[in-house]
Amino acid sequence: MAGRALRNDDVRKPRDKRALVDHDFDMDFAGKTFGTVSAERQKEMSGLDFVQGLVDGSLPLNTIAETLGYDVTEAVSGRVVVTATPRDIHLNPAGTVHGGLAATLLDSCMGLAVQSTLEKGISQTTLEFKISLVRPITPETGEIRAEGVVLSRGRRVGTAEGRLTDGKGRLLAHGTTTCLIFEI
Questions:
Q1: 100: domain CATH number?
Q2: Rounded to 5 degrees, what angle do the CA atoms 80, 84, 86 make?
Q3: Rounded-to-integer distance, Cα 22 and Cα 183, Å
Q4: Which of 14, 17, 66, 142 maximizes the CB count within 10 A of its CB?
Q5: Which helix (DSSP H) or strand (DSSP E) does residue 51 occupy?
Q6: What pTM did the predictor assign?
Q7: How confident is the model at residue 31, as a pLDDT?
Q8: Domain-located, residue 72
C-alpha cells in the first residue's frame, strides 16, 4: 500500500462517537471514587484491608481505572479480580481492543494479589511483567475478567500469575509478574 492515498472510507469510524468524550461505561461505579491513598493511611492497614477497600468503595480506585473503565471487584488474600467492559474508546487502529487494556487489567490484578498478602506498613510495586494475548478482544466480547493469583511471596519479592477471560470462560490473555516488596 506504499504511496496509495487513503480514501475516507478506508478509515474505520467509531461506532459510538459519545464514547470518545464521556465515561458512559457499562460499569457500575456507584459509591466508587478515584484518586490515591496517602502513604500515611496505607501504613495503617494491611494489604488485604487496602485491596478490600478498593472493592467496597471505602478507598478510591486509581485514576487509570476511571480512564479505562475498570473496577476491582473481588479480593481475598492472594487472589484479586478486576473487571471491565471493552468499548469503542479502547480500540486500536485495526478495530480490536488495544493490548494495553489487557496489560493494565493483568498488571492490576496480579500486583493487587501480591498486595493482598502484605502486612501493615508494607507495599509493593511491579518490577516486571509479561503477558501473552491469545484471542482478540472487541466491544462485542462483553465484560472481561482478570484474575490474579499469588505464586510466591517472600520478604522482598512476590510473583503472581493472571488470566483474562470473557463471559464464557475463554482465555483472552495471560501473564506473570514480579513485584518488589518494600516498607512504606
A1: 3.10.129.10
A2: 150
A3: 38
A4: 66
A5: helix 47-56
A6: 0.85
A7: 78
A8: yes
